[in-house]
Design goal:
CATH superfamily: Resolvase, N-terminal catalytic domain
Strand content: 15-25%
Distance between the termini: 25 Å
CATH topology: Rossmann fold
CATH class: Alpha Beta
Number of domains: 1
Shape: globular
Structural class: alpha+beta
Radius of gyration: 13 Å
CATH architecture: 3-Layer(aba) Sandwich
Helix content: 40-55%
Number of strands: 3
């Protein structure tokens, strides 16, 4: 989580039964490895992750997509690539 002090604070502050809401999954993590690391850390604390785009909620059995693919898809859709 280099360079993301507010994310670090949010993760430290989060408690069991909390949820971390992110609007764009690729803003939470910079790579699939980073996403996995953050997700495991939050899971160990009993914190759920909810992303609005793509729609992901770790309280359901859905598995997170590759964060880089999600970002590429959004940028292509927005016409930014």
């Amino acid at each position: 989580m280099d360079g993301r002090p507010k994310l670090e604070v949010a993760i430290r502050f989060a408690r069991s039964c909390d949820g971390l809401l992110v609007t764009l999954l690729d803003r939470q993590a910079q790579s699939a490895v980073d996403l996995h690391s953050i997700s495991k850390e939050l899971e160990a604390k009993g914190v759920d992750v909810i992303a609005t785009e793509p729609s992901i909620d770790t309280t359901t059995p859905n598995k997170p997509p590759d964060v880089q693919h999600a970002g590429r898809h959004r940028r292509v859709r927005d016409g930014l690539t």
